[in-house]
Amino acid sequence: MTPPANVYPDSPRVAVGAVVFRQSRVLLVQRRNPPGRGTWAIPGGSVRLGETLSQAAERETREETGVTIRAGAPVYTFDVVERDARGAVRFHYVIVDLAAEYVSGAPRAGDDALDARWVSAGELGGLPVTPATRRLLRRGFGFSEEGKGPHEPRPRPLE
Description:
Layout: E1 13-22, E2 25-31, E3 40-41, E4 44-46, H1 53-65, E5 68-83, E6 89-104, E7 113-120, H2 121-124, H3 131-141
Parallel strand pairs: 1-6
Antiparallel strand pairs: 1-2, 1-4, 2-3, 2-7, 5-6
């Protein structure tokens, strides 16, 4: 059986995430699939051929959470590179997270999410959140597990 195209790829894959706030809570999903299975992260996924970053973020958020958003500007870019025991690249994603506005819908786990929900800053510390998501929320939006929510969900430059 051949592994899926995202496992042991021949080149990096482009993916997106959507940073969505509503009532001082951020929309997060618990990942169903590797890399990061079981961890909480910004909703998102792979960009399809012919799709813009905004279109991909809107589609992936709707598929994973049932929430409709309007994607905005990129706020954070990072790599996920995971190697197997032999050192071969098992996954390689270049991820572009975009700021997004909530439009409608209630979170429910769909597509490749185990769970989806609005998370307060105070709840963040009790969840296994990916390091990139934690860093993005803290540095880019002032949203941290010390219970500080965003005053305004607008991105700030990352350090």
